[in-house]
Amino acid sequence: MRGVIGQETEMALRHPLRVALLDLLAGVDSVTANEAARRLGESSGACSFHLRQLERYGYVEPVAGAHGRARPWRLRPTAATPPDFGPLARELEDEGYHRWLARRGTAPERWQRDEAFSEVLHLTPAELATVAAEIRAVLAPYARRKPPRGSGPVGVVARVFPLLPETDA
């Protein structure tokens, strides 16, 4: 990413949790550090620290009129969106998945199951876009709701992309 985005942006997005927080805030009006921690599977202290760092770099701001420990944060309306922080988001996804694989035996029994799957489909470019939009539509109600009692953060990773032929290098 060096050279593609400015040094300030690179510093702001150096930590994958900051990227995850920006991605979370892009889909909700506001979020507290505690809410972010629940949704992202991180500690509230880490989320609070990184929200303050994102404020320092001009990406987020506290919601006006909110005070105290449970103050909500939102994206700054004037914040410039970085052109691509997808590689850092994928790094966080991969890190979380590897942590799951290493520690799932220590999770409470009701949480020791995952639903990893993949498919190879034959699609047109228009169908690829449709499938991606349909996946987003299925996830949207769950991403925007208040977490129900007994819920926990669950990573959902969907990558819909063309499989290019290997080339002899």
TrEMBL record:
InterPro entries: ArsR-like_HTH (IPR011991), HTH_ArsR_DNA-bd_dom (IPR001845), WH-like_DNA-bd_sf (IPR036388), WH_DNA-bd_sf (IPR036390). One of its GO terms (molecular function) is DNA-binding transcription factor activity. It holds the Pfam family HTH_20. SUPFAM superfamilies: Winged helix' DNA-binding domain. SMART domains: HTH_ARSR (SM00418). Residues 8-91 form the HTH arsR-type domain. It comes from the Bacteria. This is Putative ArsR family transcriptional regulator.
